[in-house]
Amino acid sequence: MPKILLLLLLPLALLSGPAQATYVVGLGTGAMSSNEQEFFEATKNYLEQKFGTNEIQFMQPVSLTHLKKLIEEKKIEYFISSAGFARSLSQDGVRELLIYAPTKKGTDRNELDSVFLTRQEMTVRTLADLKGKRFTSNNPEAFFSHIVPLAEISYAGYDPKKFFSSVSFLNKNPEDLLQALIDGRTDVVALPGCYWETLSAQNKEIREKVNPVLVSSTSPCTSSTRTFPNWTLSSTKNSDAAFTRKLVTALLEMPFSKGTASWSVQMDLSSIDGLFKELKIGHFSDYRPWTLKEMLQKYSFAVLLFAVFLLGLLSLTLFLYLKLKRRSEQLVATLRAKIKTDRAMKDI
Question: What are the residue ranges of helices labelled H in the chain?
Answer without folding.
Answer: 34-51, 64-72, 83-87, 148-155, 160-163, 174-182, 193-202, 204-209, 241-252, 270-279, 292-298, 300-347
